[in-house]
Amino acid sequence: MIYQVYVRSFLDSTGDGIGDLAGVRAGLPYLKKLGVDGIWLSPFYPSPQHDHGYDVADYCDVDPLFGDLDEFDRLVGAARRLGIKVLLDIVPNHCSSEHPWFREALAAPAGSPARARFHFADGRGPDGAEPPNNWHAMFGGPAWSRVTEPDGTPGQWYLHMFTPEQPDWNWREPEVAAEFDRVLRFWLDRGVDGFRIDVAAGLYKHPELPDSDDPEADARTRDSVNPLAWNQPEVHDVWRRWRSICEEYTERDGLDRLLVGEVSVPTAREHARYVRPDELHQAFFFDLLSASWDADAFRKVISEAMQDIAGTGSTVTWVLNNHDQVRTVTRYGEPATEGSGLGAARARAAALLMLALPGAAYIYQGEELGLPEVVDLPDDVLTDPIFRRTGSRARIRDGCRVPLPWSGQASPFGFTPGTESAKPWLPQPEYFAEYATDRALADTRSFWHLYRDGLQLRSQLPQLGEGTLRWLDAPPGVLAFERGDDLVCAVNFGTAPTPAPVSGTPLLASGPCPPGVLSGSTAAWWIRS
Ligand code: NOJ
User: Fold this and answer.
1) Residue 278: which CATH number?
2) Number of domains present in the structure of the chain
3) At which of 361, 378, 395 does a domain end?
4) Per-residue pLDDT for the chain (529 aa), expressed as one digit of tens each?
5) Ligand 1 binding pocket includes 51 (Cβ within 6 Å)
6) Domain holding 517: CATH number?
7) 114: domain CATH number?
8) Which parts of the sequence belong to the Glycosyl hydrolase family 13 catalytic domain (predicted)?
9) Which domain holds residue 522?
10) Max CA-CA distance within the chain?
11) 199 Cβ inside 6 Å of ligand 1
């Protein structure tokens, strides 16, 4: 189980209102208590922060906002002493327009080797005033921006599948692959245990960059669906190459390394290609996250994953929340600002379901506190580029990124040192008081205890380890499956109680469950006697 640390919102050690690496180090004992195996750190590299670090200006350093390399080394050392693995977030599809190679490309003439590292092309139309093709960017608007040439004339265009500040690398240029080998080695040499790979179905584009039949599909679905821009066959060579680098390190010191890809592809079968034995170890299977709260929908995605991914000998990697998605408590509930309702009960049940599935599980900071999405942030504090680039229509990703509450009754809730005048980079609502970690730890009915207990059992019970699952008969609206010979997990997606599939008291339940009963919006685990 890996815990995603969104560094700028985890814990601030300096008082500037932005979380940092020293804050992560201070939070490690909390994470150890929760029972995490490893952490994934969101990007902390030097960056102008147009997309909160997913616009990297230097892949081998730490942005002063978050600390420095010495602090990074201290964090890795402290994690290692606690037995917590550290994964970094690496962004190989694009960089920042401030990256020295992109600046060099801007200063170089059309057709130069410096431009070949990116996708520069002449525009269409009489004076090249139209973009080279009709693709739209994922975050809205055209996927091309025009540059002014060094002599001041309007010039070529460059491709950016996200914002204009995130030019896409041209992976057909061997120097790019070699540079990323160097970056991987730089961090592996500093002791990291692996990488979460951003946009891992990206990197290569169709070699001719032709027009698309449905150019706005990515922006409309907010998914990587343009078949010319994503999931090109050549990308698998990169994962083989990265896998062999990891294995070289493992051969040297005997320690496992992990590559987990953010892979958005149309089917579980396509997905399985990314986790073949010589490619990525894991790839997020987002279909569970996308499923609505419905027994049939959940059963379908779990069955597909078991058949098409686990069935080929790979690990399925489950995820319910991350820094790009509305939090489960809100997603599964009414638009609530408090976590005491249906959404919270369902989010707890979903957590127990996920922790009972064979494979890897990732949880996103605050998920273990049952934090709801902050839905009422005022427009002027929103920083997500999607909001800007959709003409303020899509308020998507700020509400799950609000800094964590640690203690106390008022903002900053211990997130940032000092007094109440210290301002977290996104405002925390008053109701965050009831989710603060100190309260969660003190209340055995909290989300935190459910996650902690679930994780503990997951590491103790061999039934919850490797292996498969067997569906059991269950009434409509209920899912029940068995792990190993005797562990049963059942989830009641309805609101009315139903008979439990196993008599006796559950080992663990996401809500009150009298013996013999599976309450509404509840999941439970039993050992069959
Ligand atoms: C996926 C990341 O999770 C998201 O936050 C980012 O904006 C895009 N990739 C672009 O790097």
Assistant:
1) 3.20.20.80
2) 3
3) 378
4) 999 999 999 999 999 999 999 999 999 999 999 999 999 999 999 999 999 999 999 999 999 999 999 999 999 999 999 999 999 999 999 999 999 999 999 999 999 999 999 999 999 999 999 999 999 999 889 999 999 999 999 999 999 999 999 999 999 999 999 999 999 999 999 999 999 999 999 999 999 999 999 998 888 888 888 999 999 999 999 999 999 999 999 999 999 999 999 999 999 999 999 999 999 999 999 999 999 999 999 999 999 999 999 988 889 999 999 999 999 999 998 654 444 589 999 999 999 999 999 999 999 999 999 999 999 999 889 888 888 777 767 778 999 999 999 999 999 999 999 766 679 999 999 999 999 999 999 999 999 999 999 999 999 999 999 899 999 999 999 999 999 999 999 999 999 999 999 998 999 999 999 989 999 999 999 999 8
5) yes
6) 2.60.40.1180
7) 3.90.400.10
8) 4-397
9) 469-527
10) 80
11) yes
**Cα 62 to Cα 42, 72, 286, 330, distances in angstroms:** 12, 8, 29, 34
* Residue minimizing CA distance to atom 3 of ligand 1: 324
Instruction: Provide DSSP, 293-340.
Output: S-HHHHHHHHHHHHHHTGGGTPPPEEES--TTS--HHHHTSSS-SSTT
Ligand 1 pocket, 228 CB below 6 A? no
* Residue 380: strand, helix, or coil: helix
> Does 409 fall in a domain?
no
User: Which are the catalytic amino acids?
Assistant: 198, 248
- Strand pairing category for 194-197 and 258-261: parallel
Q: Looking at the structure, tell me whether residues 27 and 64 fall in a common domain.
A: yes
Q: Which atom of ligand 1 is nearest to the CA of 94?
A: 11
**Whole-angstrom distance, CA of residue 351 vs CA of residue 446:** 13
Q: Whose CA is nearest to atom 4 of ligand 1?
A: 324
Tell me if 367 sits within 8 A of 351, measured CB to CB.
yes
Q: Which of 393, 375, 383, 377 shows the shortest CA–CA distance to 329?
A: 375
Check: CB of residue 229 under 8 Å from CB of residue 199. no
What six digits make up the tokens of 215? 């150019």
Q: Specify the amino acid at residue 487.
A: L
Q: Is 198 in the pocket of ligand 1 (CB under 6 A)?
A: yes
